[in-house]
Amino acid sequence: MFDSLDDLSVKLRATGYFIDPTMMQVVFLAAKLQKPLILEGPAGSGKTQLALSVAAAAGTHVERLQCYNGVSEDKAIGRFDEGLQRLYMEFSKGQHESWQTVQASLKSRDFFRPGPLMRALECERPCVLLIDELDKVDDGFEAMLLEILSAWQLSIPEFGTVEARSIPFVVLTSNEERRLGDPIRRRSLYVRVEHPTPQREADIIASRTPKADADFHREMAGIALSFRNYSLEKPPSVSEMIDFANALQLLGTNHVTAEHRDVLLPFLAKTEKDRRHLLLREGFKSLLDDGARFAEKMAHLGGTEL
Predict the structure, then answer these.
(1) 83 CB-near residues (< 8 Å, 6+ apart)
(2) Alpha-carbon dihedral sign for residues 106, 144, 148, 122
(3) What pLDDT shows up at residue 100?
(4) CB neighbour class for 223 (10 Å; exposed up to 12, middle 13-18, buried from 19)
(5) How far apart, in whole angstroms, are the C-alpha atoms of residue 226 and residue 245?
(6) Which of 149, 4, 8 is nearest to 65 (CA)?
(7) Distance from first CA to last CA of the chain, Å, rounded?
(8) Which residues contact 133 (CB under 8 A, 6 or more apart)?
(9) Which residues pair with 156 in a beta bridge?
(10) Residues of the chain below pLDDT 50
């Protein structure tokens, strides 16, 4: 997908996604060695966005399997289109020698509607296969993935084995609701993903709000850090901080004050408990003051990580 580490670095940075040099090397090696990449860490730390950004950098598309409690193999692999099968039966009456030939036709690949796993294998050129929030499914579903991640193939009982036309770049994300099994860990490279450092978050926000000045970007990163250090049920994600920064720009301000609280709470308080905490005016103001102190410290350090 990428000719060199520099090629990946330049193209990934052009998407607006910023990662440290070590992480960049791991992504490059995962692509070259055709190893799945497990990204594990808190929600909102940019795990999913890495997969989307790698796809954009490589000029390819994403096949996404969004995991959830109760997701089926049909959703992941695919299923036969019963409506199309019925139409075929109706229009092919009298054209088959026996019921066995009818069955063979109905169970062919032509009537199978692939899910994201199968679509990823059937791509003519490598795509990014994103298996998002794998920790939400049970051990049995996770075990089903081992064939595709080991042999790059899927066994479909009705018509045989589907082998990969190209090897996708696989990203598996986990928010740690459940511990992923050892078999899938052995087959993958593992990266712990935390929220970005304040300086890196300032760089990320700067890439999305280029008209604002550096003081504004540092203030946003400082606020993000102060809110995440606070005892919130749902700390703000990187994407939510970008939305927050864009909202301030639309309001025509480059500085957050306590007077902005009520209109900005929908961007930062996503549960009723968090909203009640932040409605305490002194509490909200103290978080802004903490954010301003972090921003001043970043400015003093001149780009050195806190």
Answers:
(1) none
(2) positive
(3) 63
(4) buried
(5) 15
(6) 149
(7) 34
(8) 66, 67, 68, 173, 174, 175, 177
(9) 160
(10) none
